[in-house]
Specification:
single chain, alpha/beta, Rossmann fold, 5-stranded parallel beta sheet, 5 strands, 13% strand
């Protein structure tokens, strides 16, 4: 069975070298992670295309010039193919598409980035309970314990970005 994952946009951006804070090792791991997903994984996205639309704001659907753009093209090609993509239904609380019934309505997550709530909602609503992949977005690191208490698994592709010595 293929491993299902939810991929935050920052992984694509780092893979395409569009994130200044990422070092060479982090870029390499993001590229390798996206290639691995394309070869043997499955992405979980929402059935209203919100995640794909976010990818498209910062990546090119032509698949060029970077690895994140290639991943977007792959996602656009395969989003209806259940072998590579799980479409998950999530429900907006409002018309703004940044607050979802599936997102934990708890005080400790009140300040969590509203634009990232769709990833959490998909992870929690998916029948596969996929982890969310993050590269350099500190909001995931800052809220990791609260998210984990509510059933969200986060995999940090570049954990050294957050650890201090």
């Amino acid at each position: 069975m293929k491993k299902h994952v939810v991929v935050d946009t920052n992984v694509l951006l780092v893979a395409s070298e569009q994130a200044n804070q990422a070092n060479a090792a982090c870029i390499r791991r993001c590229v390798e992670t996206l290639l691995s997903i394309r070869r043997q994984g499955c992405i979980s996205i929402d059935n209203q295309y919100r995640i794909i639309k976010e990818y498209m704001k910062k990546n090119s659907p032509t698949g060029e010039p970077g690895s994140g753009d290639e991943f977007l093209l792959w996602a656009l090609t395969n989003w209806k193919n259940p072998e590579f993509c799980e479409l998950v239904e999530i429900t907006s609380r409002t018309d703004s598409d940044d607050d979802f019934h599936e997102f934990p309505d708890v005080p400790e997550l009140a300040n969590f980035d509203r634009s990232d709530r769709k990833f959490v909602a998909v992870a929690l609503a998916s029948k596969h309970h996929p982890p969310i992949l993050n590269a350099t977005d500190s909001d995931w690191w800052n809220h990791r314990e609260a998210l984990e208490r509510h059933g969200v698994v986060i995999e940090f592709v570049c954990p050294e970005q957050f650890r201090t010595t």
